[in-house]
Design a protein that fits this description.
By secondary structure, this protein is an alpha+beta fold. It is built from 5 helices and 5 strands, in the order H-H-E-H-H-E-E-H-E-E. It has a 5-stranded mixed sheet with strand order 1-2-3-5-4.
Length: about 150
């Protein structure tokens, strides 16, 4: 995993034992836009069961210099999305004492808080679509520190 906020999240997810038991070994992946290009194609081409962590957006805050990063996790396969959600919200990664929503992953950002779970669709052909579950979280910058760590 890379030393980015996205990579740190993917690494922490891979350290949650009940989460990794839902997926095959090595199936929690970090999506790197600069290397992989088309996100929708990457999600559509995931070999289930997989969880793909990616940057879903960046926005500015109401105060000068503050911004937020939205990271998301695409869930593909016959995996119970509520079990994935429960593992992320309730279980501490191996070696940690706090559940993931309450941990500081990077000194520049507040902890992620409680994720949102929603169903998503990608059009894959004329009149056909692919559905997947998506978890999204928002990391807000702590101060006017403009260090950007995707």
């Amino acid at each position: 995993m890379t030393n980015t906020l996205r990579g740190k999240l993917a690494g922490k997810l891979a350290a949650i034992s009940s989460l990794t038991s839902l997926f095959a070994t090595g199936s929690i992946e970090e999506y790197i836009e600069e290397e992989n290009g088309d996100l929708f194609a990457a999600i559509a081409n995931l070999k289930p069961p997989r969880l793909l962590v990616y940057v879903a957006g960046i926005s500015t805050g109401r105060q000068m210099g503050l911004f937020s990063q939205r990271l998301a996790m695409a869930i593909r396969g016959d995996v119970d999305p509520l079990a994935v959600y429960a593992a992320i919200v309730n279980e501490a990664p191996s070696g940690d004492s706090l559940a993931l929503p309450f941990q500081e992953l990077d000194a520049h950002y507040e902890p992620m808080g409680i994720p949102e779970l929603e169903r998503q669709f990608i059009q894959v052909g004329e009149g056909s679509s692919l559905s997947y579950w998506n978890l999204s979280v928002v990391f807000r910058s702590r101060s006017s520190d403009t260090t950007f760590v995707a």
